[in-house]
Amino acid sequence: MVNNFNPLVTIITPVYNSAIYIEDCILSVLNQTYPNIEYIIMDGGSTDGTQAIAQKYADRLTLISEKDNGQSDAINKGWKRAKGEIVAWLNGDDLYLPDAVEKAVNYLQNHPETAWVYGCAQFVDEQGKPNHYRYPIFDWDYEKLATFACYIVQPTVFLRRTIMDEFGYIDEQLHFGMDYEYWLRIGKKYPPKFVSDIRVIVKIFQETKSRSGGYKRLKEIEAMLAKYGYHDLPSTMHHQWVEAMLDNMVLHIRKGQFKAIGADFRGLRRYPSYVVRGTAKWLLKNIMPLAVEKRLRRWFVRPTKSHPDAVC
């Protein structure tokens, strides 16, 4: 039975120079079927019209525009302002499906023993077309999260405020893996629940941090995992390590740093069984025209459902 009490939900959108996407993001929040939402946009001082777009909806959201120290800082500033019993963050290029908040609240209201939930996503390119991006989703398993993949799609997460009261906020030292680290931090004590009805649309393209972070992103995640006693990258990132080593080789050749290339070759040998796959993906990404890459991805990437209910 659904509880008719509607607790306040606070949604934070950290944003900087996202005028191309921000209005769609805003409308996806404001047009939710759930009636009791506090929406806060934390703008890092955009200069491209982002603020003007957000101001159009000033009667329905709060816009804070000020310099910050990156995305993690912006999220924390927003969460510290939040008044909601349930909190979430939605990046400026992502979208909620119309009933995402309602589904999250209904589950949390009907399952008071659950402290946080996550759902599933449709992945699209910058034009909103399916990009055939493979992303695994599983029921909660701490070991799988740490050793196989970060299978929790961040924009689908809704947390009770009591989580922040007990565990604090996002680690502002992290630039790429701050959500991943937070799931590991809180999940040991409070296992979340996968709720397939919580649905979002996530844009994945070359400029997104998860695609462009390369070697720096992987090293940050590796160091973060070590704090939790795991001394290797998740297995789904092994081919990404190969791609990062190839990127490093190209960079060192261009800079004439030929001594560094030896270290890159040694890095390739870290995951020998992934060299072929990683090299093939690197060639696809760097040599093929973007239109060809998208066509090949559509032909050859056939995501299998890692969870029977992970359908948006």
Characterization of this structure:
With 312 residues, the chain is α/β, with parallel strands linked by helices. It folds into two domains: 201 residues, Spore Coat Polysaccharide Biosynthesis Protein SpsA, Chain A (Alpha-Beta Complex); 90 residues, no CATH class. 41% of the residues lie in helices and 15% in strands. It has 13 helices and eight strands. The chain has an eight-stranded mixed beta sheet with strand order 3-2-1-4-7-6-8-5. Helix 10 runs antiparallel to helix 11 and helix 10 crosses helix 12. About 2% of the residues have low confidence.
- Can you tell me the CATH topology of the largest domain? Spore Coat Polysaccharide Biosynthesis Protein SpsA, Chain A
Molecular shape:
globular
Average residue pLDDT? 89
Tell me the strand order in the biggest sheet.
Answer: 3-2-1-4-7-6-8-5
Low-confidence stretches: 299-304
**DSSP summary, beta strand count:** 8
